From TrEMBL:
It comes from Mycena sanguinolenta. Its cofactor is FMN. This is Flavin-Reduct domain-containing protein. Signal peptide: none annotated. GO terms for molecular function: FMN binding. Belongs to the flavoredoxin family. It comes from the Eukaryota. The keyword Flavoprotein applies. The lineage of its organism: Eukaryota, Fungi, Dikarya, Basidiomycota, Agaricomycotina. Gene3D superfamilies: Electron Transport, Fmn-binding Protein, Chain A.
Length: 262
């Protein structure tokens, strides 16, 4: 089946559902639900085990970006020392600390050195913009291997919004943007000592959240944000369903267990 034979993008609203096993109690094994039973059965097919130190890094790359999913995407805006603008998506991204508020973005030097890492190292300030369904095409276009002196802003169709504390603009179309300053760059090296990756840690100076995506508790509503995540290869995921599971508490666990042992 070709991509054009697939159903059209599902624009239905995000909805909350029950969790997969809402009646689960402490200690209950997987095979008590039909889905769980099948999942347990599939373990009997065994495992294929990879040793990254011995495999071709390209094999490990494809394997890990398809297995470590879904990943959030940082859409990063930077400036070179000469003022050249740059915009590109990165899914080796996360928040790593909240006090202080620090995020990480990891940029590989393969298959080529990327402007984003060079720019952040040179000019320190950058913005990270969360991508939403309506403008994923525009954002994806910025992963093009355009020459360093070409600004991805020019062909992306996206709009610059001035930042407060850093020079690069943030993306006006983004409902959630972070202004960041380089905290530390960790150079990751291969067995021969060659730097293969720059793990950039950035201190978040300002957070811009669209009023339209904030709920009355001041947090982002996933139904409004319509965030896009990354899967393996060229696959993305749109956040369509959510479910809620209460955080377990020791006191509750003890109470439940003491009742069942009576
Ligand atoms: C959704 C998506 C996520 C990506 N994530 C990463 C990543 O985490 N690290 C990386 O080095 N490249 C990643 N890339 C590739 C870069 O976006 C691409 O190499 C881009 O051209 C880099 O631009 P630059 O040279 O202007 O910095 C990703 C591409 C896409 C489409």
């Amino acid at each position: 089946m070709s991509e054009s034979d697939l159903p059209a993008f599902d624009t239905s609203d995000f909805k909350y559902t029950q969790p997969p096993n809402p009646s689960w109690t402490y200690g209950e094994a997987l095979a008590t639900t039909e889905q769980g039973q099948q999942w347990a059965q599939e373990a009997e097919e065994g495992w294929k085990t990879f040793n990254p130190a011995e495999e071709d890094p390209r094999v490990i790359y494809k394997l890990c970006i398809s297995g470590i999913v879904p990943r959030p995407i940082a859409f990063v805006s930077t400036l070179a020392e000469d003022g050249s603008e740059n915009l590109a998506p990165f899914s080796w991204f996360n928040q790593v600390s909240t006090n202080p508020c620090v995020i990480s973005v990891s940029v590989t030097n393969s298959p080529r050195h990327k402007d984003t890492a060079a720019n952040i190292k040179a000019t320190k300030g950058f913005t990270v913009n969360i991508i939403s369904d309506p403008w994923i095409a525009q954002a994806n276009s910025c992963s093009m291997d355009a020459p360093s002196d070409i600004s991805e802003w020019t062909f992306s169709g996206l709009t610059q919004e001035p930042s407060i504390s850093v020079k690069p603009a943030r993306v006006k179309e983004s409902a959630f943007s972070l202004e960041c300053e380089l905290l530390q760059n960790v150079e990751i090296k291969d067995a021969g000592g060659k730097v293969t990756t720059n793990l950039i840690l950035g201190t978040v100076k300002y957070i811009h959240a669209r009023n339209a995506v904030l709920n009355d508790k001041g947090v982002v509503d996933p139904a409004k944000l319509k965030a896009v995540g990354r899967l393996g290869d060229i696959s993305y995921v749109s956040v369509k369903d959510g479910f809620r599971i209460p955080r377990p508490a020791w006191a509750e666990y003890i109470e439940e267990n003491s009742k069942s042992s009576l």
